[in-house]
């Protein structure tokens, strides 16, 4: 009975106006990354050729507008196709058994969660063709509706297949959201204090201590973190094109990987931990080969 209610609610959500072609311009994502993908909103505003504001005297601008409208049209087409794919599958799919978000890593049957592999692979494949297109990756936020659509597709058991139509910042936001919604963070509550204390050591001792702590992680957590750090290390090597150095990547990723069990209680110590968390993750990224070599 509960599964039937969840399925009906899921279908109802998919039928809401957020899928429609004529929906209002999207709000920025509530993603924890710094900044927002304002360019997507600007492009949506440029696709209003049938709007009353487009008078004949503005026709000279039409060529520019038509170029700017292509990306929102591709996003809309992608969302429509994704909607149909999910709607066709939900009638025979038990959604509760396929949940991806909010599920502990030790409940994942894959070596690395499929969504983690898909997101990192999608971003790296985009970089192979044009690394400059990854400028600000993980720092800039994607669109709320796009992120929701991608999240629903994974929870329905149907990851998107057309990578080229997906806004790369929405993929980055989706991956951070996945880690942020883990009931037990990838670096675990139990080891949080150990990581924080290691960051206050001198560089040589820090590296040795962090490596020891990493090998105390549960196997699913270690494998997933190793995969993510390999990806972030790879991106950091192209920081001249993307602007995402080890430090910048660490700042936007730290809150999603390291969380205290009592983080809801804001204190002076917890505020100081913010910078320490980034230092730990920066060490992960910068020293990936030394820390994660088995």
Model description:
The chain is mostly helical. It has 14 helices and no strands. The chain has helices at residues 2-14, 38-45, 62-68, 70-90, 114-129, 144-155, 168-180, 192-198, 203-214, 219-236, 239-242, 246-257, 268-286, 288-292. The radius of gyration is 21 Å and the shape is globular. Residues 13-30, 32-70 and 86-96 have low confidence and may be disordered.
Average pLDDT works out at 76
Main pleated sheet: none
Helix content: 55-70%
- From the N-terminal CA to the C-terminal CA, the straight-line distance is 47 Å
Tell me the number of strands.
0
Number of helices: 14
Uncertain stretches: 13-30, 32-70, 86-96
Class inferred from helices and paired strands:
mainly alpha
What's the multimeric state? Answer: single chain
Radius of gyration: 21 Å
Order of helices and strands: HHHHHHHHHHHHHH
As a percent range, the share of strand residues is: under 5%
Shape: globular
């Amino acid at each position: 009975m509960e599964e039937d209610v969840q399925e009906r609610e899921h279908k109802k959500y998919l039928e809401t106006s957020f899928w429609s072609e004529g929906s209002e311009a999207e709000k920025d994502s509530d993603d924890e990354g710094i900044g927002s993908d304002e360019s997507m909103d600007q492009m949506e505003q440029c696709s209003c050729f049938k709007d009353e504001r487009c008078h004949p005297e503005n026709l000279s601008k039409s060529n520019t507008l038509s170029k700017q409208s292509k990306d929102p049209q591709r996003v809309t087409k992608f969302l429509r196709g994704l909607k149909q794919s999910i709607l066709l599958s939900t009638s025979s799919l038990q959604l509760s058994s396929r949940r991806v978000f909010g599920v502990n890593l030790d409940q994942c049957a894959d070596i690395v969660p499929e969504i983690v592999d898909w997101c990192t692979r999608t971003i790296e494949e985009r970089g192979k063709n044009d690394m400059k297109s990854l400028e600000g990756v993980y720092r800039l936020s994607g669109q709320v509706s796009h992120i929701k659509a991608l999240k629903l597709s994974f929870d329905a058991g149907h990851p998107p297949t057309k990578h080229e139509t997906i806004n790369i910042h929405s993929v980055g936001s989706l991956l951070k959201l996945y880690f942020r919604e883990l009931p037990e963070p990838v670096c675990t509550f139990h080891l949080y204090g150990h990581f924080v204390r290691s960051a206050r050591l001198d560089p040589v001792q820090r590296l040795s201590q962090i490596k020891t702590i990493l090998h105390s992680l549960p196997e699913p957590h270690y494998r997933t973190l190793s995969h993510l750090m390999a990806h972030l290390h790879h991106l950091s090597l192209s920081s001249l094109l993307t602007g995402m150095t080890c430090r910048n990547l660490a700042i936007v990723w730290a809150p999603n990987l390291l969380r205290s069990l009592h983080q809801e209680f804001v204190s002076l110590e917890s505020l100081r931990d913010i910078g320490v968390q980034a230092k730990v993750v920066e060490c992960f990224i910068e020293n990936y080969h030394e820390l994660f070599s088995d």
